[in-house]
């Protein structure tokens, strides 16, 4: 089969890498792709938001199935366009993708169907939002309604912080139309986890739970990013909690979308927080996570192509997932300045041969002649596998440095996966 993977990040490189191992795959295209996908697939220089050009490309190349990495094409309606043309695509419809495209829609859905989430209120008016915030207990979480690429959420420790952020969203319109509405919600405490499921709209299978690292600096400090490290599975997430998540969040969400007339097909990815009262939903995503996909692909034994065909063929109920025993850790190397204005055009030192059970997944990087040059904020993911989490973490970090995987002015967190090693944390959640 001929496949198309849409996107240009480390997630897409990992998906292409995994799909290239399938006997059912004869050819892979990736648009626009990156330095890594170009080694395993044929890159196509088409913007991910140009959905009509993507449709034309798929028809010209006679592609059998398309997998969408980022949310933007799904929110724009690429899935609907493909189905109108009787083409196979893994990803929800435009209506179903509102789960990620509108935080207000998602919160209202959860309230209607009793899916656990933080208490909240929605505002369009700055004066009313400020008046409400002044009467609340801090910290508070404030979220812009639409897509803001990880920058539309702030945990405000005081009324002054809340007031300033509300003004930026509702008056200064720093997020444009994505900030036409805001959510003010209670701040929940607990460990955050990424929990993905593959669904055909009726049945589902869950993937291994992951833990992402959003903050730019060690100790969960600094600005939010798109994610600069992850590991899987999570040692402190026991089978009972997994079953609770499936029963109280995954299954009810899929059923709710069906009852709303917006059957959800694809990867459903709620970001969760483990509170004292159980798991709560922080937000929904309508696709594979990045960088969580990288360690998941390192651990998945099941042919990813079988998962995709089960989704499109409505056969997820008979799908059995197999995973390697052990752990995978993923450390993202970023350009200096990320997530703000960052440096580009740094030459990457690419090792001729990586260690066993170690993979580099490129993101913001391109090939120029015989060199790899940085183009984005998140440049590459160093992803490892080992039987223990500690060994996986050590393997990833041991490969980073001037004599191995390196580019000038690179930045990365030094504490990826450490929460999974804290025995005290496990005891508190048992």
TrEMBL record:
Enzyme Commission number(s) of this protein: 6.3.4.13
Domain ATP-grasp: 107-313
Signal peptide boundaries: none
Origin: domain of life: Bacteria
Main enzyme class: ligase
GO MF: ATP binding; metal ion binding; phosphoribosylamine-glycine ligase activity
Cofactor: Mg(2+); Mn(2+)
UniProt record, GO biological process: 'de novo' IMP biosynthetic process; purine nucleobase biosynthetic process
SUPFAM superfamilies for this protein: Glutathione synthetase ATP-binding domain-like (SSF56059), PreATP-grasp domain (SSF52440), Rudiment single hybrid motif (SSF51246)
UniProt entry keywords in alphabetical sequence: ATP-binding, Ligase, Manganese, Metal-binding, Nucleotide-binding, Purine biosynthesis
Family classification: Belongs to the GARS family.
Protein name in the entry: Phosphoribosylamine--glycine ligase
